[in-house]
């Protein structure tokens, strides 16, 4: 086994890990960035072909690196995001080690940490005073435990493995989950002419544009992405909320599931159980649609108040009114009778930190921290949704979070440096 000594190890070379490395590089901190695959694999391997950002391009800001293309209010496609993120490392030359997976993180006797890895050169252990875990919080897809009991002739795949409608066998498709991925995948299939069934969760929705501007631009001006989680309504429970569904496709627009239903999409409530060719749903489709629309209108009212308070000139306000309502709740589905040949699971993901063998987790397996700083000196987390603000899980908030974590890390290093000096 090879041993390597370094001041800090950053695990994960996505936008969070690279942003941390930018600050550590700037501050002259000896470190390595470990990546199990490649720095951009999350964008190249886990997005469908028609994917676009749901946040405007101007939100794309990393330390020392911001979107400077011709369409700041547009929405980059999967290929464009991959190219943009892929160009970041070349701007500052991080000490990146790709194809190397961290398999264990333990505390070292006498202080600091050991990060055990496997890679092309075999097993390597990194000895470091500080570790930043920047692998995000979306690791294991959530699939019901009874999913294997479905008819084996039905194709099942998680949203991360969905690419396009042609990938699936002919026939109708059931998409389970109405968050950002589920709603957009359902739209992708619907626009391709596929018969789509969609099982709704409790995801809220948001308007794409309102009163002449993108809603996310309004919310940024209003400071919503800068509000610390502790000050947000509901406090830390906000971390459990599902993101609002909307799309940047074709220049950006609302996702109105009622309109899809009026055009033939079959909407169901929460998927409860299943086996063989039969699925059962709760009668919650109507209430889910109502709750999503209530959030949509509530956000717009907040924008109305902001416009009034600031004395801004903007087009007149409006209110969304339902274009379709369910006349009955479909609480069961016979896959054979409806010709459903595929199920796409888009329920969400849960974290998997089993390789982190340090006691910093709550009962649900999530790290306990304050702005990414844990109670174990020298151990940090970055890239988590709501790490500090609503913007934390987005390009818009990564730089601020990375600067804070890197500052805490370099602050801890300062006394040792002074003693050496």
TrEMBL record:
Q: Can the keyword RNA-binding be found in this entry's annotation?
A: no
Record's superkingdom? Bacteria
Q: GO MF terms on file?
A: flavin adenine dinucleotide binding; monooxygenase activity
Record keywords: Oxidoreductase
Q: Does the keyword DNA-binding apply?
A: no
State the Pfam families in the record: Pyr_redox_3 (PF13738)
NCBIfam families in UniProt: MSMEG_0569_nitr
What the entry lists under PANTHER family is as follows: FLAVIN-BINDING MONOOXYGENASE-LIKE PROTEIN (AFU_ORTHOLOGUE AFUA_4G09220), FLAVIN-CONTAINING MONOOXYGENASE
Q: What is this protein called?
A: MSMEG_0569 family flavin-dependent oxidoreductase
User: Which species does the entry assign this protein to?
Assistant: Nocardioides anomalus
């Amino acid at each position: 086994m090879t041993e390597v000594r370094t001041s800090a190890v950053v695990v994960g070379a996505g936008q969070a890990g690279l942003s941390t490395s930018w600050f550590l590089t700037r501050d002259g901190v000896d470190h390595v960035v470990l990546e199990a695959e490649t720095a951009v694999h999350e964008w190249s391997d886990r997005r469908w072909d028609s994917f676009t950002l749901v946040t405007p391009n101007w939100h794309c800001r990393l330390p020392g690196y911001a979107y400077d293309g011709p369409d700041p209010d547009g929405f980059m496609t999967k290929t464009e995001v991959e190219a943009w993120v892929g160009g970041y490392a070349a701007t500052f030359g991080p000490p990146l080690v790709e194809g190397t997976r961290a398999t264990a993180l333990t505390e070292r006797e006498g202080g600091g940490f050991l990060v055990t890895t496997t890679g092309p050169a075999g097993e390597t252990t990194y000895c470091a005073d500080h570790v930043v875990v920047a692998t995000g919080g979306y690791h294991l897809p959530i699939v019901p435990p009874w999913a294997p009991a479905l008819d084996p002739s039905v194709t099942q795949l998680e949203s991360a493995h969905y690419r396009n409608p042609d990938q699936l066998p002919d026939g109708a498709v059931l998409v389970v989950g109405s968050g950002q991925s589920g709603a957009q995948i359902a739209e992708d299939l619907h626009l391709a002419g596929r018969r789509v069934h969609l099982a709704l969760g409790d995801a809220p929705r948001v308007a794409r544009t309102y009163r002449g501007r993108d809603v996310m631009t309004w919310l940024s001006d209003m400071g919503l992405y800068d509000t610390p989680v502790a000050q947000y309504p509901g406090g830390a429970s906000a971390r459990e909320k599902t993101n609002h569904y909307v799309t940047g496709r074709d220049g950006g627009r609302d996702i109105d599931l009622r309109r899809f239903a009026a055009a033939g999409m079959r909407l169901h409530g929460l998927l409860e159980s299943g086996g063989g060719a039969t699925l059962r749903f709760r009668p919650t489709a109507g209430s889910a649609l109502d709750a999503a629309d209530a959030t949509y209108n509530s956000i717009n009212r907040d924008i109305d108040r902001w416009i009034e308070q600031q004395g801004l000139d903007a087009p007149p306000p409006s209110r969304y009114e339902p274009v379709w309502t369910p006349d009955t709740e479909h609480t069961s589905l016979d896959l054979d009778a409806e010709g459903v040949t595929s199920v796409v699971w888009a329920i969400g993901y849960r974290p998997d930190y089993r390789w982190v063998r340090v006691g910093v987790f709550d009962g649900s397996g999530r790290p306990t921290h304050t702005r990414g700083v844990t109670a174990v000196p020298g151990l940090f987390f970055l890239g988590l949704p709501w790490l500090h603000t609503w913007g934390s899980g987005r390009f818009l908030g990564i730089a601020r979070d990375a600067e804070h974590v890197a500052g805490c890390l370099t602050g801890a290093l300062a006394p040792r440096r002074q003693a050496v000096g």
